[in-house]
Design goal:
- It comes from Amycolatopsis antarctica.
- The protein is about 60% helix and about 5% strand.
- The chain is mainly alpha-helical.
- The chain has one domain.
- It has a two-stranded antiparallel ribbon.
- Helix 3 crosses helix 5.
Length: about 190
Amino acid sequence: MPLDPKPADRVPGAPSPWTRWDAPRERWLMAENNCNGWPRSLLLEVCARILFPTVLVVSVYLLFAGHNDAGGGFSGGLVAGLAFVLRYVAGGSVELAAAVRIRPPVVIGAGLSIAVITAVVPVVFGLPVLSTDVWTLPLLGDLKLATSVFLDIGVYLLIVGVVLDLLRTLGAGIEARELEQEEEVDLP
């Protein structure tokens, strides 16, 4: 669909695509009828929505600072996992599905693949497994990039995927049990 259809193709009275390109595609908070029986706390939902991006930025900082300072893929992945736990606690599986569009097994597989490839590539060059090298990137100033950061990225994705999978599987069982208990109470 072209962004700016010819005036003859537009429906009379419909807004132009240029006027609605930045409009949100979904609601910022869940509507009351979308919560699927999950107890709502508006304060917790708003705080979770505000803190979520900040916690993810901190987790990415820990991921990349781990080579020289405290942090790394494992601690960054755990912090990112806690951000997703916060979203889950705020709104259940509906809120988690709004935060994550990709299935957790895909994230786990991608993280494991990146970590294994990073560990095995040095063998191709005659070096021991998990050997690391430091590359200097002259285009970005005096930026040094250690190849171990790719292993950290793989571990980061692996941990985030495992946390998301745990929330999805264990959380679904908890929600189903709570809904069954509510239905038993409602029956005369």
